[in-house]
Design a protein that fits this description.
With 444 residues, the chain is an alpha+beta fold. Strands 4, 5, 6, 7, 8, 9, 10, 11, 12 and 13 form a 10-stranded mixed β-sheet that branches. The protein has a 3-stranded mixed β-sheet with strand order 1-2-3. The model has no long low-confidence stretch (mean pLDDT 94). Helix 4 packs across helix 5. The chain has 14 helices and 13 strands. The chain has 4 domains: 78 residues, no CATH class; 95 residues, 2-Layer Sandwich (VC0802-like), CATH 3.30.2130; 127 residues, Alpha-Beta Plaits (2-Layer Sandwich), CATH 3.30.70.2510; 113 residues, 2-Layer Sandwich (Alpha-Beta Plaits), CATH 3.30.70.3190.
């Protein structure tokens, strides 16, 4: 009788719907919904009170009607000729919103019908005020068998969606999270991104890897950027996104790449590995067969991509591990003085398997942390073009600043080509020729 006694005491002090009363005793009675559990408790209390209506039962029936909104209690009072003028009160804990769970399920199914998905998860969002009330109710009355409203909503909405669609709940990486907002009993969808892997080539200089906002207006648009909000007209990211975002009916994108080349450098060879994260896509099974040609056409030949394929989220962390990848560069060096044959000989022997120390370059110090890095130069070769010009090829550890390897950046990179021959050198042209890809062997 303890459950019945405690339930009656709760109802005397607090209006409670079937869901919230049943949830106070959620641990007891397997195979029952909280709504069924609460209704069953009220049914037994009504029967007992009706039996004893002349000896205190009437008061209980009135409590069950006004604080429990239990219709059979009202019918018992009317049947026995008792006058009833009171109206049932709204639930103290949920405010009656749990009676609208079916509407939330209907809303969720309607929204889900507009996107492509296979797995899902339900999450209750913004239930803190309700949870505080139910916790206080349980603690103050010594109830250890209660469960949170979040668990009830997640379970019941999830079961209903699964029954209606035949699709299963996925806890780790669902295609979509159905977010239920209990205070308004509305639903929103948090659609997981789609990830597309490939390699990009940047065949013209003057194009950044990602969208670069105007430093004056920060994207709002101003005379300095001709009201575009951008420092550069386009980027590798924007050219690829122009095709992939509409293909996935996504709301936006984010590019992740194995490092980035300077704006004035080209990316040649087999291209730089990247993953394009497509945000809130309505289409998940993408037909990428014509996307590569479409990107080339959209960019006017400035940007090309190769080997596009769908991958999982884990590809992002793998492809961004640029420290693990070697990169090969070619370019042109200019000297303020004539370069001798001895200088060339020194340079060709000084940087094979050598570790250098680089402090964050002056040219990027305003937007990057001032750190000291140790980088390995695996191979460096130079050859003469004329008395003050060299061509070079260098293979280096990912994250090496090649321009500063040449110039020395006022001593912030040591050793440098300039420091080795005691002459002022600078990088005139730079191309990235190859980015070794340890990721493909890991299944990307």
């Amino acid at each position: 009788m303890e459950i019945l006694d405690k339930s009656l005491q709760l109802l005397k002090e607090h209006p409670l719907c079937d869901h919230c009363l049943g949830r106070m005793f959620a641990r007891y009675g397997r195979g029952l919904k909280n709504e069924e559990r609460g209704a069953a408790i009220k049914a037994v209390l009504t029967m007992e009170a009706h039996k004893d209506i002349s000896s205190g039962g009437e008061e209980t029936l009135r409590v069950l009607w006004t604080n429990g909104a239990y219709g059979p209690a009202l019918k018992a009072l009317v049947f026995e000729g008792r006058e009833v003028s009171e109206q049932p009160k709204s639930c103290d804990v949920c405010g009656g919103v749990l009676d609208k769970l079916a509407d939330a399920v209907k809303d969720a199914l309607s929204q889900l019908s507009e996107i492509q998905w296979n797995t899902f998860l339900v999450a209750t969002v913004g239930a803190e005020s309700i949870m505080k009330k139910e916790e206080a109710l349980a603690v103050n009355n010594g109830l250890e068998g209660y469960e949170s409203i979040k668990w009830e909503i997640n379970r019941e909405v999830g079961k209903a969606i699964s029954a209606a669609t035949g699709k299963e709940v996925e806890l780790k990486s669902p295609d979509v999270i159905v977010e239920v907002h209990p205070l308004s009993m509305t639903v929103s969808l948090n659609i997981s991104p789609v990830y597309v892997y490939g390699r990009y080539l940047k065949l013209e200089r003057g194009i950044p890897q990602s969208k670069w906002l105007c430093s004056y207006c920060h994207g709002k648009g101003c005379p300095h950027c001709n009201f575009t909000g951008k420092k550069y007209p386009t980027s590798v990211e924007e050219e690829i996104a122009a095709v992939l975002v509409p293909l996935a009916k996504a709301e936006g994108e984010k590019i992740h790449a194995a490092g980035r080349e300077d704006v004035d450098a080209r990316m040649l060879g087999s291209g730089r590995p990247f993953v394009m994260e497509l945000l809130s896509p309505k289409i998940r099974q993408l037909d990428l067969s014509s996307a590569e040609e479409a990107i080339k056409e959209h960019s006017g030949g400035k940007v090309e991509v190769r080997g596009l394929k769908l991958v999982g989220k884990e590809a992002v962390s793998l492809v961004k591990g640029e420290e693990k990848s070697k990169k090969t560069y070619e370019g042109v060096i200019e000297s303020a003085e004539d370069i001798t044959d001895d200088d060339i000989s020194i340079l060709n022997s000084a940087f094979n398997g050598v570790e250098i120390i680089q402090r964050t370059p002056t040219r990027v110090s305003r937007r990057r942390a001032d750190l000291v890095r140790r980088k390995t130069i695996y191979e460096l070769k130079v050859e003469r073009v004329d008395s003050k010009t060299l061509k070079f090829l260098v293979k280096a550890e990912g994250g090496t600043y090649i321009k500063e390897l040449i110039s020395g950046d006022g001593g912030r990179t040591l050793p440098s080509l300039s420091s080795k021959i005691g002459k002022s050198l600078k990088c005139k042209l730079l191309d990235v020729m190859e980015v070794e890809d340890p990721f493909e062997s890991q299944g990307i």
